[in-house]
Design a protein that fits this description.
By secondary structure, the chain is mainly alpha-helical. The protein contains eight helices and four strands, in the order ααββαββααααα. The model has no long low-confidence stretch (mean pLDDT 83).
Length: 174
């Protein structure tokens, strides 16, 4: 049987674990948005359970979402002169917190690295791509097949990326 100190100790550890997820919650939130935009998750993957009034999602949808989540956590970010994966940064931040709590460090910084949430496919860029004529594309050095896929992506509600070589040519549009 557990005594009261064991129970309160458990609650404290559990609360700390929940608090530690907050600075990095945006990684999961962004993964959810990305999963819906990419089609990895769709509304029909979810079902309502009347017994506890919550939504669940199918096992195959969970597998697809976990893959999107894995990609996000394994994506690289520049931090302290290196490119590290987010899971490595989270581990370092937890160690930093431990050093702070034990008095071995007087500083703690959960602000760095800051997320960079930039989209290439904003409304303005989509409008420019859709208005681009074949002649203009040729003058910019954009081939017919590239223009075809740019237009296809610009018409889609999903987010998209462009190759760096094409990306540098597009801002020159007037």
């Amino acid at each position: 049987m557990k005594n009261c100190t064991d129970f309160s100790d458990y609650q404290t550890k559990q609360s700390l674990a929940y608090d530690l997820q907050e600075p990095f919650r945006w990684l999961v939130d962004l993964s959810v948005v990305q999963a819906f935009e990419s089609g990895a998750l769709e509304l029909h993957d979810f079902y309502f359970t009347g017994d506890d009034y919550s939504y669940r999602f199918e096992a195959e949808a969970k597998r697809r979402f976990i893959e999107v989540l894995r990609e996000r956590f394994n994506s690289g970010v520049k931090y302290q002169g290196k490119v590290l994966k987010w899971d490595t940064i989270i581990e370092q931040k937890i160690s930093e917190l431990g050093r702070f709590l034990t008095g071995r460090s007087s500083i703690i910084d959960f602000m760095e690295p800051a997320p960079k949430l930039e989209r290439q496919d904003d409304k303005e860029m989509r409008t420019k791509i859709l208005a681009l004529t074949s002649l203009q594309a040729k003058e910019l050095g954009i081939g017919k097949s590239t223009l075809h896929y740019l237009r296809k992506n610009a018409r889609s509600p999903n987010s998209f990326r462009t190759y760096r070589k094409v990306q540098v040519k597009l801002p020159r549009l007037v």
